[in-house]
Design brief:
By secondary structure, the chain is α/β, with parallel strands linked by helices. The protein is built from 10 helices and 10 strands. Helix 3 (111-122) packs parallel to helix 5, helix 5 (157-169) runs parallel beside helix 6 (187-204) and helix 6 crosses helix 10.
Length: 284
């Protein structure tokens, strides 16, 4: 049996609350005993409404915040950043792509410098090697080598998210955490970025943790689905099982409240608009 790329065992995260005149000091529990595994080359989607603990869990998975209790394992090795140094090797293992492509890129930094920066920090590559890898990655995400010396403001939203994905992949991570990566994009561009992520996963055998509140997107990209509610896992299983026969009442309520925005619907809507001459779709 192969070792999972990522495994969580009973992850708990508490936040201290200061006392006041009418309130005692204490703690708020953001995560309550979260457990899951992610196999190599697979995608685990974590879904739930705002405030359910998705982003808190993402910060623990990406080694930004420590867990209060429980165990996080990468390639079978227990990681606890509260008690061990975060080495370049560990930083390379897990990368994240954030929701907002407009805020996640440095507007004063050229694209080429942005892509080479992780290599400067985490590898011993020469300047020529860094440049060659950055050029190749631009092509991998559907951009052009001539984009190397441009600034982020010169790109559309979809292109900026492609740049964010390229930057995350520069150090060949074992795990890529995607935190609402398409929710800030137009529907037609969402479809293109999702297709890119699927193609990159196939080509590089990537492992994803995909965080989203959009179940139609999750249904397209996920292998397994974990539904969270108030810091707890209320449903966890294969995509087909969770979507085909949801067991928990919260999951059924979440599904019922989700509008139909699946990939085929997005493509059909875009085609109808183009046929009607209602503007051209945004460039990816």
């Amino acid at each position: 049996m192969t070792t999972p790329v990522l495994e969580a065992r009973g992850i708990i995260r508490d936040y201290a609350v200061q006392g006041g005149m009418f309130r005692k000091a204490g703690a708020v529990r953001a995560l309550s005993g979260i457990s899951f595994t992610v196999e190599k080359g697979k995608t685990l989607a974590i879904v739930g409404e705002s405030g359910c603990g998705k982003s808190t869990l993402a910060r623990i998975i990406t080694l930004i915040d420590p867990a209060t209790d429980g165990e996080l394992l990468l390639d079978g090795e227990a990681i606890n950043i509260a008690h061990q140094k975060l080495t370049p090797e560990l930083r390379r293992k897990v990368q994240i792509v954030f929701q907002n492509p407009y805020g996640s890129l440095n507007p004063r930094q050229k694209v080429g410098d942005m892509l080479m920066e992780p290599l400067i920090l985490n590898t011993a590559d020469t300047a020529a090697e860094r440049r060659e890898k950055a050029m190749a990655m631009l092509v991998k995400v559907g951009l052009m080598p001539e984009h190397f010396n441009r600034y982020p403001h010169m790109f559309s939203g979809g292109q900026r998210q492609r740049l964010a994905i390229a930057r995350a992949l520069m150090v060949n991570p074992r795990l890529l955490v995607l935190d609402e990566p398409v929710s800030a994009l137009d529907l037609s561009v969402q479809a293109q970025v999702l297709n890119l992520l699927a193609d990159l996963q196939t080509e590089f055998d990537l492992t994803y943790v995909f965080i989203s509140h959009d179940l139609s997107v999750v249904r397209y990209i996920a292998d397994e689905v974990m539904v969270m509610y108030k810091g707890e896992v209320v449903e966890y299983g294969s995509r087909d099982d969770v979507f085909g026969a949801p067991q928990h009442s919260y999951t059924r309520t979440l599904f019922a409240a989700t509008p139909v925005t699946d990939l085929e619907s997005i493509r059909a809507r875009t085609a109808r608009r183009r046929a009607a001459g209602i503007g051209a779709p945004l460039q990816p």
